[in-house]
Amino acid sequence: MTIQNGDEAAAPDRFLSLQALTKRYGDTAAVDAVDLDVRKGEFLAMLGPSGCGKTTTLRMIAGLVPTTAGQIVVAGRDLTNVPPYQRDMGLVFQSYALFPHMSVAANVAFGLEMRGMAKADIRARVAEALQLVRLTGYEDRRPGQLSGGQQQRVALARALVIRPLILLLDEPLSNLDAKLREEMRNEIRDIQRRLGTTALFVTHDQDEALTMADRVVVMNKGRIEQTGTPEDLYERPRTAFVAAFVGRTNRFPGTGAGDVVHVGGVTMRCARPVTGPVEVMIRPHRIHLDGAGDRRADDNHAAGTIIRTTYAGNVVQYDVQAGDTVFNVEQSTDATGAIVGVGTAVTLSWSVANTLVFEAAP
Amino acid sequence: MDERPISRVLIWLASASFLFLLAPVLIVIPLSFSGDVFMSFPPSSWSLRWYASIGQHPKMIDAFFFSLQLAGAVTAVNLVIAVPAAYALVRLAPPGAATLMSVLTAPLLLPTIVLALAMLIVAARAGLLATPQGLFLAHLVVTLPYALRIISTALATVPVAVEEAAATLGATPLTVFRRVTLPLIIPGLVAAGALSFLVSFDEVVLSLFMSGPRLSTLPVEMYHHVESRADPLVAAISVLLVLFTLLIVIVVDRSLGLARTFVR
Question: Could you report the predicted ipTM of this complex, rounded to two decimals?
Answer without folding.
Answer: 0.86
